[in-house]
């Protein structure tokens, strides 16, 4: 299968022809590549469909369209043999070459190809550098985002600590209140102890006075009992005397 490719974009002066030639030779594609007057690049290839698709995928290089020295393919037009735009096909397709559209000696041609390869390498390095810078910026942005998140978490932690401080202050206040109540309870217990001591003293005094009263009563009862005994003896004597008098009276009457 023979095709004509027209590649649009920033493809001249960027080493693109050297890259196309190198890729085509690695894929064993026959043909040539050359610059057009309109700034595009034209290529002619002879290969199968599968190899062509792989070739197009590789040479479809994307760069920075804002950079004048950045290789950037915007569009690849594919015109197969028989298409109205498939014009200028070479009579023979041999080893893939760069057509400089002028007679040039091998030394000069080799120098041009080397310069194009150098431009391509520098362009790739520049693109890699820019991508690396972009990756670095992205990494820095991610780091900044993580730092912001860490700061937010730190703020949340500080707020939580402050909340704990407030809770701790409330707990301390409650503890102080409990201690005050405990002191009041202790004072009340001490007051009860004093009252209990007073009550014990009163009861002790009452016991002593009661004991003394019973002692006095016992003494008085003993004295009364002695008097009663004496009175009983006297009454007994009196009764005995009366009995004697009665007997004497009875005897006098009998006489």
The count of strands amounts to 5
| Overall radius of gyration | 68 Å
What is the percent of helical residues? 55-70%
Annotation field: number of helices: 3
Beta-strand content estimate: 5-15%
Distance between the termini: 203 Å
The CATH architecture of the domain at 2-101: 2-Layer Sandwich
Looking at CATH, which topology of the domain at 2-101 would you report? Alpha-Beta Plaits
Coarse structural class? alpha+beta
* Structural shape: rod-shaped
Question: What is the top-level CATH class of the domain at 2-101?
Answer: Alpha Beta
**Spatial arrangement of strands, main beta sheet:** 4-1-3-2-5
Low-confidence stretches: none
Q: H/E series, N to C?
A: EHEEHEEH
Averaged pLDDT: 83
Question: Major beta sheet, specifics?
Answer: 5 strands, mixed
Key structural traits:
five-stranded mixed sheet; 67% helix; alpha+beta; Alpha-Beta Plaits; rod-shaped; 3 helices; 255 residues
């Amino acid at each position: 299968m023979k095709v004509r490719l027209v590649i649009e974009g920033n493809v001249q002066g960027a080493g693109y022809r050297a890259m196309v030639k190198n890729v085509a030779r690695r894929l064993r594609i026959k043909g040539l590549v050359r610059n057009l007057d309109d700034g595009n690049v034209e290529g002619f290839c002879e290969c199968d469909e599968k190899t062509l698709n792989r070739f197009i995928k590789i040479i479809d290089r994307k760069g920075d369209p804002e950079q004048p020295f950045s290789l950037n393919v915007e569009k690849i037009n594919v015109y197969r043999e028989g298409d109205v735009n498939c014009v200028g096909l070479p009579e023979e397709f041999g080893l893939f070459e760069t057509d400089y559209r002028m007679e040039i000696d091998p030394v000069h041609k080799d120098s041009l190809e080397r310069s194009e390869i150098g431009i391509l390498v520098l362009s790739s390095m520049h693109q890699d550098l820019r991508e690396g810078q972009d990756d670095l910026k992205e990494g820095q942005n991610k780091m900044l985002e993580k730092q912001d998140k860490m700061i937010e978490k730190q703020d949340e932690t500080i707020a939580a600590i402050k909340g704990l401080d407030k809770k701790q202050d409330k707990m301390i206040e409650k503890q102080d209140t409990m201690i005050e109540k405990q002191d009041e309870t202790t004072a009340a217990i001490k007051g009860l102890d004093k009252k209990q001591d007073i009550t014990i003293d009163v009861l002790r005094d009452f016991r002593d006075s009661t004991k003394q009263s019973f002692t006095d009563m016992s003494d008085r009862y003993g004295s009364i009992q002695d008097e009663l005994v004496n009175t009983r003896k006297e009454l007994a004597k009196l009764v005995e005397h009366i009995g004697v008098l009665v007997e004497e009276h009875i005897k006098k009457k009998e006489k």
